């Protein structure tokens, strides 16, 4: 089988490519140049897709004895991922750029080009498993990335490979060292890859600008503070609210609502964060068919955490679904993904589908 190995320059994609070679596939490595500033260097565990990362990926390809190319996707990445990220925050939503990147870059633009060039599959270093076409959680629960892959369609999954999803991260590093790959001890990327400083508020502020508004108490309606833009807030946020004092009873306040139209941020007690139902749109059903009856499931609303037993119902046309929770979740925001898992013990294992949250 002809396999295109997406090589980020990290240890996970390096071992994924090595395993594809070892399995006897005809493998070609490709690094995606996503930065519009290609001279940018990585700083420790911050940032990715840098000049340094491209060099690391090339050295791994040399050791594996496979052809290697760099494909420039910077313009598309800016348009489909960065611009959408900024626009979502300006609208008061909380997007997940990793999910968008998987949807529109790694498993849309990249996979489409790979198939056009005659490749059968794209292999990546994601921590997830494919079992008979079903997307499942990785063996290493702490590293599981099935949440950010749940946006993939059945057709995209049919041309995907996740070679390391059956192995804990510690063993992946040990394997890389045994194979003589210099990236064995390279730090994992953290935070948002295109914000290497880690200062998301400053990044957004430079692109959205100042749009002043009020921070308002949910209980009394009192105006508590001014702010420079709703992009500096997300549902469930407790710190950085610009409020001088806690509530009258001494309890902390949390962001409970964001209205971008009026630039109003509402704060209140923790119990106002409890969510019992979720509406999601832009639904993707992993098996390619819309469920024709209610689904008992586990819903997850954040990449690491935010799980609850639930019952979901798809809309008639399958483009949306509603979730009724068996126990409340907190910190649920518009723009996040609601991913449905077929229940087993507690976390769920098989991905059923996902959608973007529009109401909670």
UniProtKB/TrEMBL annotation:
Every copy of the tRNA-specific 2-thiouridylase MnmA-like C-terminal domain together lies at 278-357
Which residues participate directly in catalysis?
101 (nucleophile), 193 (cysteine persulfide intermediate)
Q: Which domain of life is it from?
A: Bacteria
UniProt binding sites for ATP: 6-13, 32, 125
Q: List, alphabetically, the InterPro entries matched.
A: MnmA-like, MnmA-like_C, MnmA-like_central, MnmA-like_central_sf, Rossmann-like_a/b/a_fold
According to the record, the residues making up region (Interaction with tRNA) are: 143-145
Which residues bear the site annotation Interaction with tRNA?
126, 336
Q: What is its main location?
A: cytoplasm
Which family is annotated? Belongs to the MnmA/TRMU family.
Q: What is this protein called?
A: tRNA-specific 2-thiouridylase MnmA
State the organism named in the record: Williamsia herbipolensis
Taxonomy, top ranks, is:
Bacteria, Bacillati, Actinomycetota, Actinomycetes, Mycobacteriales
Tell me what gene encodes this. Answer: mnmA
């Amino acid at each position: 089988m002809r396999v295109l190995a997406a090589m980020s320059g990290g240890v996970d994609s390096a071992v994924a490519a090595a395993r594809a070679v070892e399995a006897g596939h005809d493998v070609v490595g490709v690094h995606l140049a996503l930065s519009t500033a290609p001279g940018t260097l990585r700083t420790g565990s911050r940032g990715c897709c840098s000049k340094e990362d491209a060099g690391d990926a090339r050295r791994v390809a040399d050791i594996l004895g496979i052809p290697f190319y760099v494909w420039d996707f910077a313009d598309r990445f800016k348009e489909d991922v960065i611009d959408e990220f900024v626009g979502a925050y300006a609208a008061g939503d909380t997007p997940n750029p990793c999910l968008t990147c998987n949807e529109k870059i790694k498993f849309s633009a990249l996979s489409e080009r790979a198939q056009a060039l005659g490749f059968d599959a794209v292999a990546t270093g994601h921590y997830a498993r494919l079992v008979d076409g079903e997307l499942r959680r990785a063996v290493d629960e702490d590293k599981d990335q099935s949440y950010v892959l749940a946006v993939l369609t059945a057709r995209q999954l049919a041309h995907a490979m996740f070679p390391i999803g059956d192995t804990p991260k510690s063993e992946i590093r040990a394997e890389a060292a045994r194979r003589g790959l210099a990236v064995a001890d390279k730090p994992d990327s953290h935070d948002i890859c295109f914000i290497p400083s880690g200062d998301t508020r400053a990044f957004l502020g430079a692109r959205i600008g100042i749009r002043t508004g009020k921070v308002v108490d949910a209980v009394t309606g009192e105006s508590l503070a001014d702010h420079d833009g709703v992009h500096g807030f997300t549902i469930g946020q407790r710190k950085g609210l610009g409020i001088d004092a806690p509530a009258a009873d001494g309890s902390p306040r949390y962001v409970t609502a964001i209205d971008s139209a009026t630039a109003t941020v509402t704060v209140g007690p923790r119990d106002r964060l409890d969510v019992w139902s979720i509406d999601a749109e832009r639904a993707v059903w992993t098996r390619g068919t819309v469920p024709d009856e209610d689904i008992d499931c586990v819903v997850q609303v954040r990449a690491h955490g935010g799980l609850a037993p639930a019952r979901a119902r798809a809309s008639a046309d399958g483009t949306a679904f509603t979730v009724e929770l068996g126990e409340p979740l907190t910190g649920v925001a518009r723009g996040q993904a609601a991913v449905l898992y077929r229940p087993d013990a507690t976390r769920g294992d098989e991905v059923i589908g996902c959608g973007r949250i529009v109401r909670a």
